[in-house]
Each structure stands twice: as C-alpha cells, then as structure tokens.
Design a protein that fits this description.
Helix content is about 45%, strand content about 15%. The chain is α/β, with parallel strands linked by helices.
Length: about 170
C-alpha cells in the first residue's frame, strides 16, 4: 500500500524544512501544504484571523488532488493537520496509509522562530490559536524538532521503520 507521511504541527515547528530535507534524503516527493491554500485563506491568516475547519474544505480538496497525482509509493505532506477534521480528511480522502509525524517544539521556541520569520503569511499572533486547535492523534509519531535537521531526519526514519502498519 502507498504511504503518506504527514509532517504535522503548528506554524514554526519545521514542517517545510524537515519535509524538504527528508525528500532530498529519501527521494520521496513532498507536497507543501501551504502552497494549496486558496488566497482567501492566506489573506485571512495574514490579517490575524484563525482558520476554521469550514475554511479548510477547499484547501483539503486541493491537497487530495495533489496527493492523488503522486505516483511514488511513499510521499511526504508538510501540513499543520491541527484538527481531527483535517486528520480524518487526510486518512479517508486518500488511497494511502497515512502516518502522522508530530514535530514537537516547545511554545517559547515556536514563538521565537515565528518572530524572526518574515517570508510567510502566517503571523506569530496566530500561534496561540494554532496551539489551542492542536489535537495530536494518539497514533502519531512524536519527534523533538529542536535538534539539528539531520538528526530529526534520522529520528523520523527510525521511528517510521519501527512503527506498526495501521
């Protein structure tokens, strides 16, 4: 069965950085979740308003289409996947076995990372709303994302090798 590795967590946890590095290391294609948000969602977040699950419907449809186009056995999706609604849509909306990898970073570190990031539509003011919405699936692999990138990649790959198929 084809697999989808979902690198999840709030803004600033390193999803894009780790996803790109994991893709280079493994050869697995990566879908960058932020690239599939409709402009209205980006504008809403840039204005400091958190998205609702209703706002995420078009984004999820766009993601599912992008994932369906991938022909590799394993693929990576970098997306927040904060809510059970999104998690369920990813699990049931693709024909792939979905593995959630939660990139765990303490709130203070996330806040610092977001304050120095200037090239993203997501303002640091929305971090608390993301943390409030965050519901990590019990089956998610938890990885500390405060280590060097190469160590995080090694930890992700080891955890994936040791995780049961579900």
């Amino acid at each position: 069965m084809q697999k989808l590795i979902v690198l999840m967590g709030p803004s600033g946890c390193g999803k894009s950085t780790i996803g790109a590095a994991l893709s280079r290391h493994s050869g697995w294609p990566m879908v960058e979740g932020d690239d599939y948000h409709p402009q209205a969602n980006k504008d809403k977040m840039a204005a400091g308003t958190a998205l609702t699950d209703n706002d995420r419907k078009e984004w999820l449809a766009n993601l599912k289409t992008a994932i369906a186009r991938l022909d590799h056995d394993t693929a990576i999706l970098a997306c927040s996947a904060l809510t059970p609604y999104v998690q369920s849509a990813l699990k049931t909306g693709t024909s792939r076995l979905v593995k959630f990898v939660f990139l765990d970073v303490p709130e203070d570190d996330l806040s610092q990372r977001l304050k120095i990031r200037t090239d993203h539509f997501m303002p640091s003011s929305l971090l608390s709303s993301q943390l409030d919405a965050l519901d990590v699936p019990k089956e998610a692999i938890r990885i500390s994302a405060n280590n060097p990138v190469h160590q995080i990649i090694d930890n992700v790959l080891t955890a994936l090798e040791n995780s049961p198929e579900n």
